[in-house]
Amino acid sequence: VQLQASGGGLVQAGGSLKLSCAASGGGFIIEDMGWYRQAPGKERESVATSREGFGTYADSVQGRFTISVDSAKKMVYLHMNSLKPEDTAVYYCHVRWRYYGRTFVRATWGQGTQVTVSS
Predict the structure, then answer these.
(1) CA atoms of 13 and 111, how far apart (whole Å)
(2) Spatial separation of the C-alpha atoms in residues 9 and 17, rounded to whole Å
(3) Closest by Cα among 97, 81, 78 to 36
(4) Band of residue 50 on the pLDDT scale cut at 50, 70, 90
(5) Per-residue pLDDT for 26 more than 90?
(6) pLDDT digits over 92-117, tens only?
(7) Which one, of 10, 55, 52, lies nearest residue 35 by Cα?
(8) 54 CB contacts (<8 Å, ≥6 apart)?
(9) How many whole angstroms separate alpha carbon 10 and alpha carbon 117?
(10) In sequence order, what are the residues at sequence separation of 6 or more whose Cβ sits closer than 8 angstroms to the Cβ of residue 98?
(11) CA–CA distance, 65 with 71 (Å, rounded to integer)
(12) Which residues, including other chains, have CB under 8 Å from residue 62's CB and lie 6 or more apart?
């Protein structure tokens, strides 16, 4: 499984961005998909995860970010509204998956996309 993320960029505070991530490969089932971020000098943190149609969010983005999944296309999106300078980070998509007929769950990271929010 490979992940390809896109959609990062520079935006002013209060603006919006949409991140996209596509999973490619064959013969696998997705368990969950999500987004993490890592700001300079900080640890990578979970931003949002979607599992079985339900999204969970970090407190810092609750009410501003929305995660959505297109299962048929194996894509995950992160809709980011009311962006703040503290949202500036490299955003990584993440998927947990398993091969058909197997129970072992694997994880794959995308390459990261930079989001910069100016004040």
Answers:
(1) 25
(2) 8
(3) 78
(4) very high
(5) no
(6) 999 999 999 999 999 999 999 999 99
(7) 55
(8) none
(9) 6
(10) 28, 29, 31, 104, 105, 106
(11) 19
(12) none
Contact 50, 68 (CB under 8 A): yes
C-alpha dihedral sign at 112, 47, 106, 23: negative
**Largest Cα–Cα separation, the chain:** 50
For residue 64 the two structure tokens come to 């501003």
Identify residue 24 by its one-letter amino acid code: S
The Cα–Cα gap between 46 and 2 comes to 19
Q: List Cα–Cα distances, 66 to 2, 25, 42, 76, in angstroms.
A: 23, 26, 23, 11
3-state secondary structure of 79: strand
pLDDT score recorded for residue 101: 94
* Residues found in the chain: 119
64-84 tens-digit pLDDT: 999 999 999 999 999 999 999
